[in-house]
């Protein structure tokens, strides 16, 4: 039996998708899994999409997650969830940040931001909607919404044997450890 699990984290440049992936990957290694991670930066410096693919299990040979293979997709932005849904397994789950970042064509008035994304995705998949931006704002810094989402994901995955506090402290910017730990705890409570 194939014990390998597949996770996609997708978002827009600047949302901290890669940091969340690195923390998750380190935690999974600490839990004893073989882990492979792949990052794709599509014009991320200019607000383009960013995705990371994480595969973990007893033995993993490739970091690439194919269409229809993701056990979990964590979308840091709603439109990215829509863009990546074809990678989700039939019985997979989506964790979606209820947050919008308008693309350049939307900002230029060429197209409208799509309406009803969460409703459409909920009809086609098992979806957990998280208001990570609101939680991060309540903590005093919108930049920690990635760690809020990470906390929600870790809780859903039920990975044991990991010192998430240490893993987060080792990866976040010095001076922001406590804020990120609070963000993780808030996401974990979800």
TrEMBL record:
The keyword Oxidoreductase applies. InterPro entries: IorB_Oxidoreductase, Pyrv/ketoisovalerate_OxRed_cat, Pyrv_flavodox_OxRed_cen. Signal peptide: none annotated. It comes from the Bacteria. The keyword Nucleus does not apply. Residues 13-188 form the Pyruvate/ketoisovalerate oxidoreductase catalytic domain. Keywords: Oxidoreductase, Pyruvate. One of its GO terms (molecular function) is oxidoreductase activity, acting on the aldehyde or oxo group of donors. This is Indolepyruvate oxidoreductase subunit beta. It comes from Aminipila luticellarii.
